[in-house]
Amino acid sequence: MLFKPPRAVSLTLNLAPMVDVMMCLIIFFILAGDIVKSDHRQLDMPFALAAATTDTSRLGPRVVINVVTPAGGGAAEYRVTGWDGEQIVDRVIDPDEIAPLLAQRASDARRDGQGELRCVIRAHRDARYRDVELVLRGCGLAKIRGIVFGVHAGQEPPAGGGS
C-alpha cells in the first residue's frame, strides 16, 4: 500500500468578514452619535398626587415635617402636616417646638400601641443642612429611628390635580 506523505496545510486568515463587521460598527456609532446629539427633548413629568382613596393606615404612625426655604434666603419655616390622632394638622411651628412635638407624638404612638413613629422630612432642595439638622436632632431626642427624607425641587404641582 502506498501512502501519500501528509501535505503541509497552509492556514490562512480570512480578514474580509472582520473588516465588514468593523465598518458596520463604525457607521452605526457615527450615525447614533449624530442622532443622540440632535434628539434632545425636554420631558416634564407631572407630580404624582395621592389618590383620595389611598389607605395610609398600613404605613403606621408618622409625622411629616416640611422644611420650607424662602426664595430670598433667610430663616427656614417648619410646617407640620399629618394626622395628630384627632384631626388633620397643617401648621407652622417654631424651631424650638420641633423636639417637644416629636417627643410627644412618639410617646403617644408607643402608649397607644401603634408602634414606632416615623418622621418624614421633606426639604426644599435649596434648604441648608443646619435647617434640616434641627429636625434630625429632634428625632434623636425623641428616639425616632424611622426617618424618611424627601427633597422637593421647587416646582409647584399642576393645578387641578392630574392623572
Describe this structure as you would to a colleague.
It is a single chain. This protein has a five-stranded mixed sheet with strand order 3-2-1-4-5, covered by helices on one side. It has 163 residues and is α/β, with parallel strands linked by helices. The C terminus is likely disordered. The protein starts with 15 loop residues before the first helix and ends in an 11-residue tail after the last strand. Strand 2 and strand 3 form a beta hairpin. Helix content is 31%, strand content 21%. The protein has a domain of 92 residues: Nucleotidyltransferase, domain 5. The chain is built from three helices and five strands; from the N terminus they run H-E-E-E-H-E-H-E.
List the topology elements.
Elements: H1 16-38, E1 62-68, E2 77-83, E3 88-93, H2 98-111, E4 118-124, H3 129-141, E5 146-152
Helix pairs in contact: 2-3
Keywords:
disordered C terminus, 163 residues, alpha/beta, Nucleotidyltransferase, domain 5, 5-stranded mixed sheet
If you average the pLDDT, what whole number results? 78
Shape: elongated
How many E strands? 5
- Which strand-content bin applies to the residues? 15-25%
* Topology-level CATH name of the domain at 61-152: Nucleotidyltransferase, domain 5
Radius of gyration: 31 Å
How would you briefly describe this protein structure?
By secondary structure, the protein is of the alpha/beta class.
